[in-house]
C-alpha cells in the first residue's frame, strides 16, 4: 500500500477498534457455544475441517494473521513492505539497505515481519548484484517475475533461523513433493529458478547452515498447495495462514473469505447455513470458470482432480456456464459427456454432433485471449465481444458472463457513459446483464458472498432509474413503480448486509455503506 499518512492510518485503526467494541457482545455469545469446527482426516482430503454444530450463515469461523506473507508470483514489481505496485525507473524510491524498490521511505511495512524485515534487508544487501541490481527499468518481465518469486521462499527459509516455531508449523503443511517430482516440467522449473539460483548465485547455504535442495523443494510445494492470494486497493500478496489452509476445496463452497488491509488477516465465514458434520469448504479456483478449466487449474497447483458435485454435473448445477452453441443444429447446447474425464468428448444435447475436448480447450483459449485483450473500461469493445460470440457460446457461458460483469460495473461509471448520460436502452442493458450474472452467482456462490453483494448493489441503480423515468413519463403504473422500489429495497438491504461484513477500509465495505445510505434515503421518502 502507498505510504499512508499517520492521521489516515490512525483514523482507520480507530474505526477498526470501534467495530471490535461493537461486536463484543456477539463474540461473547459465540464463546458460550461449542467450537464451530473440528479437524478430521480422510483418505481423500487429508486433514480437513467439519462443522461441530449447525452453523448460521455469516458466522465467523476464523480470523488470523499470516504465518508468512510475500509478493505474488507476478511480472509486476511491488513494494516489499506493503505489496502495492511500484515502478523500476530511477525515480522510484528504493530501500537504502538493499536497493529493492519500495513505495516510500516510510512504508508501514519496513522492519516488520509482515513486510520488509531487517534480516531480509541485510541478506539482500549482501546480494545486491544477484538481486536489486537486476531490478532495472530494462529488466524483462520474466526476470522480474523470477526475482519476485524468490521473495516469499527466502522469507520462509529465513524463518528457519530467526523464527523456528513458525517455520516448524509451516513444515507441517502438505507439499505433495513426491507427486511434484514426477511432473518433470514443474520440478525442473523449481530446480532451476529457485533451488539452483538460491544455492549457487545467492550462496544461501552460507547463511542457513544445513540447507538442502530437498527442503527447498518442500517449501516450494507447501507454497503452491497452501497459499492464499490476498489484496486490497491495488495491493496483492500471497500468504500462509495457521489454520485456514485446512479447509477442503469445493467448486460451490459453503464459506467465503476476505482479508483485512490493515494486518493481512484472513476472515473466514460461513456463506450459508451449514449442517452439523458438514465439511467446511472454500474454492481453490475462480468459481466463475467452467469445469474443464477449473479442474486443470486445481490439478496444476494443488495436485488433485476435483470430483465435487458441480464438477460431476455436465450442466454445472443448472448454471450451464460451460455450454457452447451447437454449430450444426443451432438449437442444442454442447456439453462435456463425462465431465470428470478431461479428455472425454463434448456432445450436443439435441443432435449427434460431437467434438473432442482438446478442440473445446483451444476454442476457449482463443476466446479468452480475445477477452483479455479488451480494456475493461471499453464499453463498445465489450459489447462487440458479446455480439461476436453469441453464436458460439450460450448466454450463461462464463466468458460471456465475465464481459457482462465488466459492463455491469462500468455502465454509469466511465466517461461518456455516466448515469445521467445513459440512454434508457443502455440502462436496460445494465439491468439485464446484472440479472443474468446474479442468476448464475446465486447458483455457484450462493448466500453471503462478496460477488452477490457487489452485483446486487449494481442492479439496484438501473431498476431505480428506470422506475423513476417510467413514472415521470407516465408509462409506468403506480403499482409497477412500487413493485420495483420494493425490489430496490430488498437488493440494497442484502447488499449492505453482505458488503458491510467486509473489513473497514476495503472498497467493498465502502460500497456496503453506500448501499446502507441509499436504503436510508429511500426509507425516509417512503
Ligand atoms: C490446502 S491443502 C488442505 C489441507 C490438507 N488436506 C492437509 O492435510 O494439509 C490442499 C490439499 O488438500 C487436499 N484436498 C483438499 N480438497 C480436496 C478435494 N476436494 N478433493 C481431494 N483432495 C482435496 C489435496 O491434497 C490438496 O492438495
Amino-to-carboxy terminus distance = 42 Å
Estimated radius of gyration: 25 Å
What's the structural domain tally? 4
Q: Residue ranges: pLDDT <50 for 5 or more in a row? A: 1-24
Structure, described:
- By secondary structure, this protein is α+β, with helices and mostly antiparallel strands.
- The protein is globular, with a radius of gyration of 25 Å.
- It has four domains: 51-63 and 241-282, SET domain (Beta-clip-like, Beta Complex), CATH 2.170.270; 66-238, no CATH class; 289-410, no CATH class; 420-526, no CATH class.
- Residues 1-24 have low confidence and may be disordered.
- The relative contact order is 0.08.
- The strands form five sheets. A four-stranded antiparallel beta sheet has the order 11-12-13-14.
- 47% of the residues lie in helices and 10% in strands.
- β8 (255-259) and β9 (266-270) form a beta hairpin.
- The protein contains 17 helices and 14 strands.
- The chain has helices at residues 6-32, 118-126, 141-162, 164-171, 177-182, 184-201, 204-207, 213-226, 291-302, 309-312, 357-372, 379-388, 398-410, 424-444, 450-473, 478-499, 507-525, and strands at residues 37-42, 46-51, 60-64, 68-71, 228-230, 237-240, 248-249, 255-259, 266-270, 281-282, 324-325, 333-336, 346-348, 354-355.
- α12 runs antiparallel to α13 (398-410), α15 runs parallel beside α17 (507-525) and α16 (478-499) packs antiparallel against α17.
- The protein binds S-adenosylmethionine.
- Residues 44-48, 173-174, 176, 225-226, 245-246, 248-249, 302-304, 306 line the site of S-adenosylmethionine.
